[in-house]
From TrEMBL, chain A:
The keyword Cell cycle applies. GO terms for cellular component: axoneme; cleavage furrow; kinetochore; midbody; septin complex; spindle. Residues 363-395 are annotated as: Disordered. Residues 27-296 form the Septin-type G domain. The keyword GTP-binding applies. InterPro entries: G_SEPTIN_dom, P-loop_NTPase, Septin, Septin7. One of its GO terms (molecular function) is GTP binding. This is Septin. GO terms for biological process: cell division. It comes from Chanos chanos.
From TrEMBL, chain B:
Gene3D superfamilies: P-loop containing nucleotide triphosphate hydrolases. Residues 394-420 are annotated as: Disordered. Keywords: GTP-binding, Nucleotide-binding. GO terms for molecular function: GTP binding. Residues 39-305 form the Septin-type G domain. CDD domains: CDC_Septin. Belongs to the TRAFAC class TrmE-Era-EngA-EngB-Septin-like GTPase superfamily. Septin GTPase family. It holds the Pfam family Septin. This is Septin. It comes from the Eukaryota. InterPro entries: G_SEPTIN_dom, P-loop_NTPase, Septin.
Length: 426, 420
């Protein structure tokens, strides 16, 4: 289809990436990050550490101040600028998650939130008049695991199982400064084992052709889930000013890769894979939502006749747009109607033929009977005629005879008379 | 696709925050760029112009390569479009380039419908994209985009004005595709004639309301160069794949007895400007405009045609689901109605025919009755005659008997007479 052509000189489309760069900077970027975990695991602190700012202002109630017992979903939007690049960052918080005594369905508000964002995007995408579509879909979910050291809690497993096909999940071990490196390793292995056991699909790093990048990705994969420590305070340590947590026995530095995986998380989440998180959300999670939603719409009111033993039909249903599918249905229906019409026509013709034939037969029968009767009558008539003729002949004959006899008698009597007269004279 | 551009930051309640250090999201544009480089780019050019005006040569010159082309004849029955796709690579950038040629344009005697195949082709590409976008299971991110990003309209170098075919065609295309008009074979026009020609062309375009592509001036990085280029439209170009030695270099040029026209010399022609604008500065913008403006317009018209609306009669916005469901309901009830109609028609037909047949049956019956009556009458008559005959025969028999008894008594009288 496409031919490979070699260029014999500089054309200039190698500047395309620059053009794309320029336009993207002008447009600005958006990113929605969700944090999920029980209260007190240091979620807000971690966000602040990640973005080097006080995202959650002083008025933001800490865990001890929260009154509500049900899971809330709260959005915080901030606009940050760096190096000429604007980023609209939305952080979605889930206070109350896992805090109740009975935590069944505490994931439901989270699922609902994610779905409603997908729904909004789907509706915006499907409008006739499409304006700019702000992307408020959740691009990444940081799931905080409590540093028990023993493994995942049932709630952790339930949550991740229900959300792994809706959002990119990055599991984190929170407050990792309570685990020693060995404990941490054990814990990580345990968690990854359990994740695999339950077939939970956490965010997968894409393969790259670049060797350097491949090495980096492998390093990250080996450290999953990332054990993080966050801090809002800057401390003097080893002559440097670092973010860290001051203990009597030392300072746990947030950005020290020997102390925790914070830098790995930050680099991966912000500096290298932010775009990919958005892409996977758009190309995989959103498309899944959309195709499920649209399939549900088009399967409403599908004729039972149609699905009779036609499993292959479902494949074509999925491959088409609902509109194309309606077109297809329309065409099918037209064909069906034509066939029906033909059949009805046939039946009709046949019945008419039958009736007409019957009628003809009747007519023929009647005609035949009429002929027969006529013949019969004629025969009778003839017979009668014959009889009459015969009779008249006989009668005429007899009458003739009688007249003869009468004549004879008359002659005889006349002769006698004559003789009588003659006899008397003597 | 990801969110389209324009200011997404306007209607949000958000706070501006200052960062306490280097976070690192300034690498986002690089991440985006690296992703698009991996994906590869695609660009589709449509060349509209008369046969022999230099479309293929210009493409070869622009892209520094020999695209295969057979020379087209002037005897085509109509206009048809010939797309060809090529894979090009420059440093690490892969470009899937599709060049669509209009073969036979301007050759027919009656050119009224010449624009139609072009418009149809453009619409078909939009339609294909729309269909993909509407599918239930779709894969837009690796869809080969065939929508035309730029239409280079080749104007013949008459030196006077646009031909009416040009105006008609461009008018039909301007709402569907980005148009850059270029004056072809500009080496046949002198500088002063060229200046007048350009002014004439632009004023004709304006007075006829033809919207050509304006190089964008909203981005400070390129606004200056773009606005200066806008003033040079239409570009007067010369194309050549042959090289001529000028000075001590081999340059692409056309050799005439009176001199050498150098393609890449800006005082000789606007080729460099065209290349700069089309490829090096605004390629991405052309793609964006095609997607965000022309395609959206097509989509909107198509959906409205199909009866989709954004709001119901009460001005409540429809959700996608509602829209589809409503459409589907309408559609199903329509089908049902058609079925009913057909059935009804048949029922009527049957009734009619039945009535006809019944009528015939009745007639037959009547006829039969009539015949029957005739027979009865006949029979009666015969019966009467028979009776008459019987009576006569009886009467005759009586006579006969009477006569015989009479004749029996007669001979006695005779004997008596004889004795005397």
């Amino acid at each position: 289809m496409a031919q490979q052509k070699n260029l014999e000189g500089y054309v200039g489309f190698a500047s395309l990436p620059n053009q794309v760069y320029r336009k993207s900077v002008k447009r600005g970027f958006e990113f929605t990050l969700m944090v999920v975990g029980e209260s007190g695991l240091g979620k807000s602190t971690l966000i602040n550490s990640l973005f080097l700012t006080d995202l959650y202002s002083a008025e933001h109630p800490g865990p001890s101040h929260r009154v509500k017992k049900t899971v809330q979903v709260e959005q915080t939007k901030v606009l940050v600028k760096e190096g000429g690049v604007q980023l609209l960052l939305t952080v979605v918080d889930t206070p109350g998650f896992g805090d109740a005594v009975d935590n069944s369905n505490c994931w439901q508000p989270v699922i609902d939130h994610i779905d409603s964002k997908f729904e909004d995007y789907l509706n915006a995408e499907s409008r006739v008049n499409r304006r700019q579509m702000p992307d408020s879909r959740v691009h990444c979910c940081l799931y905080f695991i409590a540093p028990s050291g023993h493994g995942l809690k049932p709630l952790d497993i339930e949550f991740m199982k229900r959300l792994h096909e809706k959002v990119n999940i990055i599991p984190l071990i929170a407050k990792a400064d309570t685990l020693t490196p060995e404990e941490c390793q054990q814990f990580k292995k345990q968690i990854m084992r359990e994740i695999q056991e339950h077939k939970i699909k956490i965010y997968e790093f894409p393969d790259t052709d670049d060797d350097e990048e491949e090495k980096l990705v492998k390093k990250i994969k080996d450290c999953l889930p990332l054990a993080v420590v966050g801090s809002n305070t800057i401390i003097e340590a080893n002559g440097k000013r670092v973010r860290g947590r001051q203990y009597p026995w030392g300072v746990a530095e947030v950005e020290n890769s020997d102390h925790c995986d914070f830098t790995i998380l930050r680099n991966m989440l912000i500096r290298t894979h932010m775009q990919d998180l958005k892409d996977v959300t758009n190309n995989v999670h959103y498309e899944n939502y959309r195709s499920r939603k649209l399939a549900a719409v088009t399967c409403n009111g599908v004729d039972n006749n149609r699905t009779k033993g036609q499993l292959t039909k479902l494949d074509t249903v999925e491959g088409m747009s609902p509109l194309a599918q309606m077109e297809e249905e329309r065409r099918e229906h037209v064909a069906k109607m034509k066939k029906m019409e033909m059949e009805m026509e046939q039946v009709f013709e046949m019945k008419v033929k039958e009736k007409v034939q019957k009628l003809r037969d009747s007519e023929a029968e009647l005609q035949r009977r009429h002929e027969q009767m006529k013949k019969n009558l004629e025969a009778q008539h003839k017979e009668l005629e014959e009889k009459r003729r015969q009779f008249e002949e006989d009668r005429a004959h007899w009458e003739a005879q009688q007249r003869l006899v009468e004549q004879q008698k008359l002659d005889a009597s006349r002769t006698l008379e004559k003789n009588k007269k003659k006899g008397k004279i003597f | 696709m990801a969110a389209t551009d324009v200011d997404v930051f306007s209607n949000e309640e958000k706070r501006n925050l200052n960062l306490g250090g280097h976070v690192g999201f300034d690498s986002l544009p690089d991440q985006l760029v690296s992703k698009s480089v991996t994906q590869g780019f695609c660009f589709n050019i449509l060349c509209v112009g008369e046969t022999g005006i230099g479309k293929s040569t210009l493409m070869n010159t622009l892209f520094n390569t020999m695209f295969e082309n057979e020379e087209a004849s002037h005897y085509q029955n109509g206009v048809y479009l010939r797309p060809r796709t090529y894979d090009l690579q420059e440093s690490n950038v892969h470009l899937k380039l599709t060049i669509v040629d209009t073969v036979g344009f301007g050759d027919q005697i009656n050119k009224e419908d010449s624009y139609k195949p072009i418009v149809d082709y453009i619409d078909t590409q939009f339609e294909n994209y729309l269909q993909e976008e509407l599918k239930i299971k779709r894969s837009l991110y690796n869809y080969h985009d065939t929508r035309i990003h730029i239409c280079l309209y080749f104007i013949a170098p008459t030196g006077h004005s646009l031909k009416s075919l040009d105006l008609v065609t461009m008018k039909k295309l301007d709402s569907k595709v980005n148009i850059i008009p270029i004056i072809a074979k500009a080496d046949t026009i002198s500088k002063s004639e060229l200046h007048k020609f350009k002014i004439k062309i632009m004023s004709e375009l304006v007075s006829n309301g033809v919207q050509i592509y304006q190089f964008p001036t909203d981005d400070e990085a390129v606004s200056e160069i773009n606005s200066s280029m806008n003033a040079h439209l239409p570009f007067a170009v010369v194309g050549s794949v042959e090289e001529v030695k000028v000075g001590n270099k081999m340059v692409r040029a056309r050799q005439y007895p009176w001199g050498v026209v150098q393609v890449e010399n800006e005082s000789h022609c606007d080729f460099v400007k065209l290349r700069e604008m089309l490829i090096r500065v605004n390629m991405e913008d052309l793609r964006e405009q095609t997607h965000a403006r022309h395609y959206e317009l097509y989509r909107r018209c198509k959906l409205e045609e199909m009866g989709f609306k954004d709001t119901d009669p009460d001005s409540q916005p429809f959700s996608l689901q509602e829209t589809y469901e409503a459409k589907r309901k309408e559609f199903l009830s329509d089908l049902q109605r058609k079925e009913e109609e057909m059935r009804q028609m048949f029922v009527n037909k049957v009734k009619e025919t039945e009535a006809e047949l019944k009528e015939k049956e009745r007639e037959l019956h009547d006829k039969f009755e009539q015949l029957k009556r005739m027979h009865q009458d006949e029979k009666k008559k015969i019966e009467e005659k028979r009776r008459d005959l019987e009576e006569e025969m009886n009467a005759f028999n009586r006579r006969k008997v009477a006569a015989e008894t009479l004749s029996l008594s007669q001979p006695l009288k005779k004997d008596k007479d004889k004795k005397n």
